[in-house]
Structures are given as structure tokens and as C-alpha cells.
Amino acid sequence: MEKILIVDDEVFICENLQRVLSADGYKVFITHSGEDALDIVVEEEIDLVLLDLNLGSTSGLDVLKTLRDIDPELLVIIITGYGTVESAVESLKMGAYDYIKKPFKADAIHLIVRLALETQELRREVRHLKRGSGVLSAAMQIVGASEEMKRIYSQIQEVAKHETATVLITGESGTGKELVAKAIHNLSPRSAKPFVEINCGSLPYNLLESELFGYEKGAFTDAKTRKIGLLEEASGGTLFLDEIGEMDMSLQVKLLRVIEDRKFRRLGNTRNIDIDVRIIAATNRNLKKAIDEKQFREDLYYRLNVFPIRLPALRERRDDIPNLLDFFIKKFSADFKKKVKDVARPALNLFMEYQWPGNVRELKNVVERICIMTDAEVITEDVLPQEIKGNKPKKEAPAGVEVPAEGLVLEDAVSRYEEGIIRKALSMTDGNVAQASKLLGTARGTLRYKLEKYKIEHNDH
């Protein structure tokens, strides 16, 4: 059943559209807020959005841009009572599928929605044929709606357009560096060409050299036939060099030459081969430290670091944990034909408190293991691994917390404490709300609300 989201600040319009489209068999979601719309799109895997351009204080065009950043394949139909040629053209330039003015007739809605969903289906079939797989684009496998992940989506979108720019993805193990590399490839003009990957830390120098450059028959003792290297296999597409920080220094020299000259030689051959390939590298090492320790070439670092993308650890984007849990539960529940649907609140609290040293990969493995072992519909504390259950905080009061003998009003005391912390964070960041929200580990919108609540002056950058 296709899922449609209606975003309009007029309740009457939302209810009418919901009635019309539900009668056609679609599952319909409604919201009057652009911010809520973004959450629904991530959580529910929406197929089509009907978006009003005028959402009170929020611009529909801003919401459209963010929706397209989150999911470039999402179809959006603009609806507005303030239709002008300028707004129509602007929304179409930004990727809207079509544009319809209020008031509109039910027949027009039936038709435009049906055509949009048919277009979506055709696009999916084309992608399936191009990639030889029914799997969704890697861009859609990157789950998260936090400010940190919105920044990553924006970077992926931007660098994908520039098909020759080298990219260096950094981040801890398990943060999703390979997914980001695939997303860049799939969203680029190179998407119909090969995406070739190799882990530079998994092979010794001579084998890695052979894999990358290939060799001629007789180039060395075991070279019984010619071998085409990965640089040639990736021609026209993307070569992803995972764990580039583990590459031998001698091979780094050869890779630098390839990036600079856009040509290479097979082992045992004297003829240069021209290549057209984008190189994306990734590492969990601190390459600047490796340069200081003479373990990585500085010139290669700057050649790779044309467009850097740093992936945050999962503990740096805890707001995404519920969405990731929902995504993996749906996946593994379907894979293993189980009926797991949700996480109980006490168990969710433990998921949120755990440090996740293995990042998203560890979270994925935990959910997979639970879905294999349980037959319940809800994940509870008792099925969690001991390392997560053992993370439950102690119950004693923090140091410095006292209750006066005459008593106090708890709500007032908490409010005073909260206001003090917020003022301290703003002082540390020179009034910058974005930086303060990161320092406090809370959403920027939540922090703005509390600033208004406590009448705190700030610089909203």
C-alpha cells in the first residue's frame, strides 16, 4: 500500500485530501508542521508528499529542499492557494514533481497522484535494471534525521554532482563510511557505471598492488594469465578505497601518481592506460597523526582530502537511535519472519544510554541477534545483551544535590537548574544556539523553545 503524506496548515484541506485519497486505497498521513513532516518521511518511508507552500511561519520551499536532501527520490507535489508562476517555477527547479493550485477538484487530485506514483514505480524499475538489484539506493539506507545527519545528506548531495572530485570519508569503525561512498556514487552521473571497492587493510602490499593495477601474463612467477585491475574495472565509475590509512607507503606513491596523472600501468607492461574514475577513500585513523609519525604521505592526504566528510559516532547523534531501531526491527523482523514491532520504554532508555563503541554496525548486530532469538512483539530489557543492561545508571543522587530541610518545589528547582545550565552553555559558545545545542546534546528547536521559556537572549546562527 502506497503511503502519502499531506502537509498543510489548514485542517479542512488535510481532512478532505485524506478522505479522497484513503478512498483510493492509499495509507494517508497528515501534519500541519514542516518539522513533523521531516520526521514522518524518515520513519514511515513515504512514497509521495502533498506539500503546501504556505505553512504559516515556515516556507514550504524550505521544507521541500530538506525533504529532497533526506530522500532525493521522494516525489513532492506542491499545493497552494497563493499560486504564482514564480513559486511554481521555483518549486519545480528544486525538484517538485508537479504543482496544483487551491481550490482543486477531487478528480484532479485522483489523476495527479496516480500519475506521480506510476512515475515513481517506473523510476524504481529503471534503477533495478541499472543496478541489477531490487535493493533500495544506498542513500536510502542511511537512517537519521538529526542535525548531524542532515549535514551529511547535504554534503552527499553536493559532492555527488561533481563527478571527478576525490572524497575522504573519516569516522569511527561502524559509522557507515561504505554506505556514504555508495550513496555518493548512486546519486552521481556515474551511477550507471561500476562501484568497485577494496579494503586496503585486508591485503599485503604485493596482493593489493596486483588487485589495484592488474598485471600481464608472466609479470611474476604466478602470473599465468593477464589480470584486469580494479582501476580498470571501475572505469567510468567509482573506486572506493576503504581503510586507506593502512596502505603501504610504497603503494601510496603509486596511488598519488594515478590521481595526479589519471593514468597507470599494469604490472609487467610499459604502456600507460588512461582512466576515468572517481576515487573515494575512507579511514578510521587520524591521518594527520599518521603523517606526523611518517606512516602516511602528506601529499597523498591533500590529494584525497579535496572534499572531506566526517561521520559522527552514534553517541554523537543519539536522537537517531529510535529511527535506527525502527529501521532494523522492520528489516530483520521481515528477514526472519518474526513479529517484532517495537521497543519497550525501559529497553529504549537503555539503548539511548549505551555508548555504542561499535556505532551503527553494533546496533544493527544487536537488533539482528534479538530478532533471531525472540518470538515476542516488543523488545524488553530481559532480551538485551548484558553489556547494554549493565549500562543502567546508578540510582544514588549526583554529588552536590541537596534537599533543604524545609523542602522545595521540585518543578521550580529543576527549572532553575535547567536555566542555569543553558545560560552556561550559551556563555561558553558566545550565544551561538547551534553550538550550544550540540554542547547540551539537544535539538536546536527544543533549545529555542527553552530560551523563549526562560526569556534568555541569544544569537541564533
TrEMBL record:
Domain Response regulatory per the UniProt entry, residue ranges: 3-117
Sigma-54 factor interaction domain location: 142-372
UniProt keyword list: ATP-binding, DNA-binding, Nucleotide-binding, Phosphoprotein, Transcription, Transcription regulation
InterPro entries assigned: AAA+_ATPase (IPR003593), AAA_lid_NorR (IPR058031), CheY-like_superfamily (IPR011006), Homeodomain-like_sf (IPR009057), HTH_Fis (IPR002197), P-loop_NTPase (IPR027417), Sig_transdc_resp-reg_receiver (IPR001789), Sigma_54_int (IPR002078)
Superkingdom to which the source organism belongs: Bacteria
Gene Ontology biological process terms from the UniProt entry: phosphorelay signal transduction system; regulation of DNA-templated transcription
Alphabetized Pfam families for the sequence: AAA_lid_14, HTH_8, Response_reg, Sigma54_activat
Residue ranges of coiled coil: none
One Gene Ontology MF term: sequence-specific DNA binding
Residue list for modification 4-aspartylphosphate: D52
PANTHER family registered for this protein in UniProt: ALGINATE BIOSYNTHESIS TRANSCRIPTIONAL REGULATORY PROTEIN ALGB, TRANSCRIPTIONAL REGULATORY PROTEIN
Protein name: Sigma-54-dependent Fis family transcriptional regulator
Taxonomic source organism: Geovibrio thiophilus
Lineage of the species this protein comes from: Bacteria, Pseudomonadati, Deferribacterota, Deferribacteres, Deferribacterales
